[in-house]
Input
Amino acid sequence: TLVFHYRERVGALCWRMFHRRKMSSFAQRSLERRTHSFVLTNSTHGQPESVLQTFDCYSQTQPTCSIGQEKGEFLDSAVSRAAPLQALELGTHCGYSAIRILRLLPASGKLYTVEQDPDTADVGEEMILVAGFKHSQFQLLISPSCTAIPQLQSQFGVQSLGLVFMDHDVAEYLPDLRALEEGGLLTKGCIIVVNNTHLPGAKEFLHYIHNSSHYSVCFQALGMQEIRYQATNTTEELTVTLSNQMDT
Ligand SMILES: C[S@@+](CC[C@H](N)C(=O)[O-])C[C@H]1O[C@@H](n2cnc3c(N)ncnc32)[C@H](O)[C@@H]1O
Output
C-alpha cells in the first residue's frame, strides 16, 4: 500500500509539473498571438511607423516583451550612428525591435535576426512583413543564438557586422559575444547594444567588457548600454604601426 501511495503521489506531482509548464508556455504563446492580432487589425500595413505605434499602444495596457518606445529610441540612435550594412539581432520575439532597426538601415543594409522559439519566430516574421519589409532586407534564423552565430558565416556568407543588438537570454550575452569575436564578425567600430544589463545575469558580460581594451561603453540608460568595439592589433593596424616606425 505504501509503495502504491508513493507512486500515486509522484505521478500526481509529475502531472502537475507537466501541466503547469504546458499552461505557462500556452499563456506565453497566446500573449504573442494576441499582440499579433491587435497589430494586424489596427495598424496600417506597409508603414513601419504605424506598426510600431500600434505595438506601443497595445503595450500601454497589455504585457509584452518588446523593448517599447523609450528603449526603442535608445536603440534608434545607436542604429543611426552605426549605419550598418549588416546588423544582427539576438531575440526577435514579435519583431518590434527588428522593425525599429530595419527602418533605419541604409538602403542596401540587411538585418539578421535570431529567435529560438518557432511559434514566436512566425509571429515576428509576419509582423516584419506587415511593416513592409521584404525578405531581401532581413533574414530570420530560427535557432538558439549559439547555433545561429556560426551559421551567419557558413550559410549566409556574413563577413562583418556593423551593429549587434542583444535582447535574448542574459546568460548567453558573454558566450555569444565571444563567438562573434572568434568568428571575426565584429568590425572595428561595430556598435553593440545590450538590453537588461542591470540584471544579475549580465554581471560576467559587463566584467568582460569593462576589463577588455577592445571595448568602450559609449552610452548607458534605462538598463541598456551602447558599447563600441575597437579591436587593436589587427593586421591592418600592425601594418600601419610598422610602416610608421620604418618611416621614423
Ligand atoms: C525580450 S524578448 C525580445 C524582444 C525583442 N527584441 C523586441 O524588443 O521586440 C527575448 C526573445 O529572445 C528569445 N531568446 C531567448 N534566448 C534565446 C537564445 N539563446 N537564442 C535565440 N533566441 C532567444 C526568446 O524566445 C524571446 O522571444
Remarks:
- Confidence is low (pLDDT under 50) at residues 235-246.
- The radius of gyration is 21 Å.
- The longest helix spans residues 2-42.
- Residues 65-67, 90-91, 93-94, 96-97, 114-117, 120, 144-145, 167-169, 172 surround S-adenosylmethionine (CB under 6 Å).
